[in-house]
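Troubleshooting entry. The earlier prediction with 2-acetamido-2-deoxy-beta-D-glucopyranose gave an output that would not parse, so I re-checked the input for stray whitespace and re-submitted. Clean input:
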Amino acid sequence: MMDLQRALLYSFFIISIISSYNCSQEDPLDHNHLKEQASGYDSQAYPSYVGDGEFEGLIKLQSDVLGLQTLSDGGSKSIPVKTIDLNDSGVRADGEEDDTELFETAWDEACSSPEGATIVVPQCNYRLKPIIFQGPCKSNIAFQVHGTIEASGNQSDYKKDGKHWIVFDRVENLVVDGGGVIDGNGKIWWENSCKVNKSLPCKEAPTAVTFCECKNLAVKNLKIQNAQQNHVTFKKSNHVQVSNLTVTSPEESPNTDGIHVTDTQNIQITDSVIGTGDDCISIVSGSKNVQATNITCGPGHGISIGSLGQHGSKDYVSGVTVNGAKFSGTTNGVRIKTWQGGSGKCKQHQVSEY
Ligand SMILES: *[C@@H]1O[C@H](CO)[C@@H](O)[C@H](O)[C@H]1NC(C)=O
Ligand SMILES: *[C@@H]1O[C@H](CO)[C@@H](O)[C@H](O)[C@H]1NC(C)=O
Ligand SMILES: *[C@@H]1O[C@H](CO)[C@@H](O)[C@H](O)[C@H]1NC(C)=O
Ligand SMILES: *[C@@H]1O[C@H](CO)[C@@H](O)[C@H](O)[C@H]1NC(C)=O
Ligand SMILES: *[C@@H]1O[C@H](CO)[C@@H](O)[C@H](O)[C@H]1NC(C)=O
């Protein structure tokens, strides 16, 4: 029953994707499939990560992220870092007025800066309409959220693109952290979900934070809550480190996956607490080398790989490792969801729970 609803949702997604931003336009699956064939990659030939070229990629990621850490801590002497503090604008953020322009201006300045730039979101309340932080940028960017960023709760603000609230698109060498809160203010969307009110038509709601075609990315030390639909989506991204996130929304909030991974490679998700109304982590087609370590999951539907093979499609997910996940109040632990009539690979997964 639930999978049927998902199928409906996914098909809505496919139909409506054409009108959204650039990086959603190509078919991610075919692209990945071709690449995999061209490089002669055969996941069966590599039973463990050691010796697999991708493993080196992960080690490289860690040193990249360390470099970025220095940047987000204020920078070493050798890297000049520009700091853009939203408080310097003199805007009194109180969560009542719209602050979208303030963020757009700050992003433009950071992204066009030839030196590494840090955007500081101070301990105030900011309110944002849907926004795209567009790359590529001239240099590294640290986005430090110390305060609270809350989504506009006016649904007519989402008319242009009903699928996304905050998007980082084609940004490389990015750290998003700061100890603050990103709040999707999702109540209005949940109330208007067809899963909650059966008399309403089924419509997609925005993902709170989407990283699309990003590379060398760290997302950490944040609370992400009350998403309209998914909380955080990594799409077509590579070399991603996610750690110390607290992702929460009410158990009865519909379709609020915690972390959704699609067509993304070399991603580590560690030390995070996720409790939502849907999957804690969902991993779908085109994803490779996904490591989830020390995840506390619940309430929610557990960690899922799939749904794979819907509409008879060929889906490829390989190299998923789940270590030390704790489940409480979840309807499932780790599950692989497949559809009849689909084909493809879903292999080399290791699961150890404690
Ligand atoms: C923001 O700036 C004002 C002065 O313009 C200062 O009083 C306030 O403490 C600052 N807030 C933060 C969070 O830095
Ligand atoms: C929502 O936004 C629309 C258009 O921007 C505006 O006309 C309307 O007054 C807003 N509604 C609320 C409740 O603020
Ligand atoms: C469900 O939606 C209908 C149509 O908009 C509305 O009239 C009704 O009050 C809603 N029910 C609940 C429980 O919100
Ligand atoms: C984890 O993130 C929270 C903010 O959500 C922060 O207060 C805490 O210091 C972080 N822990 C570590 C070990 O960095
Ligand atoms: C697991 O993650 C939690 C935070 O989510 C952290 O407090 C704890 O120290 C981590 N455990 C290990 C073994 O790293």
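This one parsed fine. The pocket of 2-acetamido-2-deoxy-beta-D-glucopyranose (ligand 2) is lined by residues 154, 156 (CB under 6 Å).
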